[in-house]
Amino acid sequence: MLNLVIDIGNSRTKIALFNQHDLMFNVPIEQLTVNHLKMLKDEHPQLNQAILSSVKPVNDELLQFLSGNFDFFIELDHRTEIPIKNLYETPETLGKDRLAAAVGANELFHDQNILIIDAGTAITYDLVSEKNEFIGGNISPGLQMRFKALNQFTGKLPLVNHSDDFQHIGRNTTDAIRAGVQNGILYEIAQTIELFNKNYQNLQIVMTGGDSIFFDKKLNYTIFVHFNITLIGLNRILEYNAKNK
User: Which are the catalytic amino acids?
Assistant: First the structure.
């Protein structure tokens, strides 16, 4: 029995195949179509369970194919049963990627305090307690969003890209922007880790997202970087619901 996991984000879509708990492969695609799903079904006849998580509206053709061609299919929303307790006060507004990453981190580090940092379009900080409870978290602008904001909301500041070569103080406008944005995020992440470390013992730090490698090697903390933590979480939610159906 194989599981299909579909994660449709703001900038790209990931599809993954799991053999129960084991990730077989995952690929990014620009836009998921029914033809993609048909090819997967043809190549893997034992593929009969699926979960879809999307931050954008999904067309009816995709949903009809998934619900009609898989023995068990769920579309993740705030009503979906999950294997951890969700203490978020407004679960209907909680990002599906945040929730799935929390479940994925809990799958890897069960019964531990975990801080999940997702360095993507936005930077999110989410906490799962050693009681396997999603406590909540923080959201701030991501790396590219900060560069674009300085360019778009000012009259003269240029659009700057991130670079591994930057100083603590800029001596020209480009370097000043790069130093301000990149050091600012590093200070933010470090301070957030310190804050959570003071309040939660033996805190495991998990980082994911497209910019995680850039920040990980510049922070003086033991950080577990895992790019597939959201996919692992979605697969865990699928398995949990299939077992309890």
Answer: 97
